[in-house]
Structures are given as structure tokens and as C-alpha cells.
Input
Amino acid sequence: MSSVPAYPEAPEPLPVGVYDNHTHLEFDPGYPGLELGDHLDRASAVGVLGVVQVGTDIESSRWSAATAAAEPRVLASVAIHPNEAVEYAEQGILDAALAEIDALAALPRVVSVGETGLDYYRTETDAGRAAQLRSFEAHIAIAKKHGLALQIHDRDAHDDVIATLLRVGAPERTVFHCYSGDAQMAAVCAQHGWYLSFAGNVTFKNAGTLREALAVTPRSRILVETDAPFLTPVPLRGRPNAPYLLPHTVRAMATYLDMAVDDLGEQLAANTESVYGRWS
Output
């Protein structure tokens, strides 16, 4: 009988508090032990001041908005994930779903629209990619209508994501969640004032390209995230991820950037608040 990996022990607390730019606390990864309050209490204990809880479909976006309304350590982002947009379009309900995202975006503690964007890894058909693009453009319009940040999901679609942002006009605060491009793309993003959020995969052995991108990103445009329960950082790969494990990624980033951990923490906290405002 195979054993189920447990959540890891908590890391040493950070000397300066930071925020988790992108997490999915509604996901049940199949591991025993942590409810929402447990996640947030563990995060608070290690210096993670708050999280942006991110929706990927109608159900999780509703949950994200409701959770943010009830829990001061949570702000919400709402959206239809590009892969979900394909399914909604096939079911004939994409327009109705986008209308609900528009309504959720008006709620007080919803601070972002996303994750939205383009994902060519799982979608290769012209019809599927057209549905993703239509959804992406609608999300951009919703973010601008409500004055919210935009969180972008970009997988194997770098050129088309950037072309879309330039064609229709990016929101004032645009974030590439779980940044996956190279240093050249990071320079393009910096030119336009977009934010790059780095996740646990920046610590992976084969992630040299990500670390090069991190190195050329202006310090004022760097964010950090877990994308929990995914992308658990080294040295905990294979274990479930959670916001309280963010210090591993922050400390690794400080090493790559040759910065003191407290200096990087202050920068990350200031950057995150410049995108979303204060949690309180």
C-alpha cells in the first residue's frame, strides 16, 4: 500500500513579511491535513502576510471571492482559465461565464482578473485557440473596466500573449503569473512596465533560463508566488506545496539576485502592494 506524502515541516520564518501572489487553496491535492485556516495560520507563522487566491473557472472564482470577503489574509482574483475557456466554448456557455466574471470583478476584495491568457500546450486546434483568444481579450476588457490588475497564464504562447496585450492595450497593472519566458522576453515585459511573478520552479536544477530572466527583471517588477498546490520548490519537490513554503523560493531568489533576504522581502512586499493594494 503506497503512502501519501505529507505536507512538509515549516521553513524558518522570513525576516520581512511577503505575499503569495498566486495560490489555489480551493484545490484538494489528495493529501491529508490542512484546511483553509491551517494554510493561512502556517503562512502567517513564517512571514507570509497574505495570499491572492486565484480562480480558474466559475466555481473556483465564486469561492475565491467569497473567501476573500470572509478572510482578511486573502484577496481574490477571478477568471476562466484558457483551457476552461475552450471547454466552455464547446458547451456554448463561454459568454455567460464571462458575464459572471464581470459581475464577480465588481466585488470589494476582488483585486485582479486572472488567471487568463493563452495555453498552447494542451490546445492545438484553431477553434480552441480562437476561444482562448476571445476569452483573453474579454478578461483584459473586464480588468480595465473595473480598474483591476490582470494575472496572465502563458504556456507555450509567449509571442501571441504579448502581441495581444500590445494590440488591445494591457491594463495598467499586468502580471505574468508563474513566469515561463526567457531573459529576452523579460526585457520586453520590463519595457512595458509589466510584472513578472516567479514560482517554485525557479529553484529547479534545469531552470537556468528562468534564473537568467529573474536577473534582468527590474527589482521593482518582481513578484513571488507558490502556485500551490503545484510547483513545490527545492528541496521539497514531490511534496505538496502551500503558501507557508514560500520562504524557500524567496531565499533562493535572494541568492540568485545576490540580495539580502530582508532587502528582497521589502521589495517584494512593496511591489505586491503596488499591484493589489493593502490586504487590510
User: Anything to note?
Assistant: The two ends are 46 Å apart (CA to CA). The beta strands are 18-23, 48-54, 74-78, 110-119, 149-155, 174-176, 195-198, 222-224. Residues 126-146 form the longest helix (21 residues).
